[in-house]
Amino acid sequence: LALLFAGKASVAYSRIVLVGAWLLSIFLLPVTRRFCRHYFGKFRWWGTPLVILDRSNTGRELWHYLKRHPWLGLSPADIFTLPPDMEEARRQLKDAERRHPGAIALMLQPSDAHTARFVHEASRYFVKILVVPAQSSGVRQHWFHACDLGTMTGFMLMQNLRRRWRQRLKRALDLVLCLPVVVLCSVPGLLLCLLIRLDSRGPVFYRQRRLGKDGKAFDVFKFRTMRQDADEVLARYLEENPDLRDEWEKDRKLKHDPRITRVGRFLRKSSLDELPQLINVVRGEMSLVGPRPIVEAEIAKYGEVYADYCRVRPGITGLWQVSGRNNTTYEERVSLDRYYVTNWCIWMDLWILARTFPVVLTGYGAY
Prior knowledge:
Elements: H1 2-7, H2 15-40, E1 48-52, H3 57-68, E2 74-79, H4 86-99, E3 104-108, H5 115-122, E4 128-132, E5 144-148, E6 153-157, H6 164-184, H7 186-199, E7 205-211, E8 217-223, H8 230-240, H9 245-251, H10 262-270, H11 277-282, E9 287-289, H12 299-302, H13 306-309, E10 315-317, H14 330-343, H15 346-362
Parallel strand pairs: 1-2, 1-3, 3-4, 9-10
Antiparallel strand pairs: 5-6, 7-8
Helix pairs in contact: 2-15
């Protein structure tokens, strides 16, 4: 736009094209960025070298995590603990800078009296220093910024969902995006209803009691994917295969569930079984993006995170759905739900919606 305006290349500007390109970029940019990170993460040259100045369990865990997720852009190159002796620490820092030019120095849990001195010494040899405060090990906060308090530095945390106008904005986005989709999916939805009826006996829709915002119970709608005698089939299957009982007790899921019908397996793999939840969104019981709706028995598994869960409407899609779904542990799912509530913004919802399409098309983590 700047080049067209400055060069006066044309006097005819299509506003529809310009606005359409901007709206399209909202979805294409995060998807393309994610693809590039995962693709180029396979190459050795990708990422900035990282020197971790902490050989504790936390430092080792971070080392292995970054090695498993190279797309994050930080490539661990070295890890060691700075000794209490400052002269020896200087020697190690100088040697690390020589062996890893352009690296970022990361200090984990700096909570002792030598922290400030070590930071100042590291700044003599490294251009960038990433300091992780000790109290941040249990806090995954995205919307924060440094705050100068005169004699010290603090971190200002933001809770976007505490503001009413942001909650209304989220609800408006749900309706604007949901109502056109309901109209477009009406014909395919009727076709799916017909296939379900032809495949097995029973109702087309399945309703289950779930907990929503403020802990209020509601009926979530889904296309039926199981046989009518699902409970009897499950009991018989677990009795014949006792080795699978632990898998069922852990997450209340089975990778090869005998209760699922032929059409139901396709619906689950493609996530089309959750299409009727658009009705819940229109009724205000759910949102397009949010934590996965839970049943009452799962409150104990959520623990203190349940209070965060109750602050938002559960969603058709969410961080869990685009982060591996059934390939993740239940603890990771709870952690992702807390992260979403704590760090919510309208751009995060759009980013999750953009990532949902490739996840649905590939069927990753669905069963």
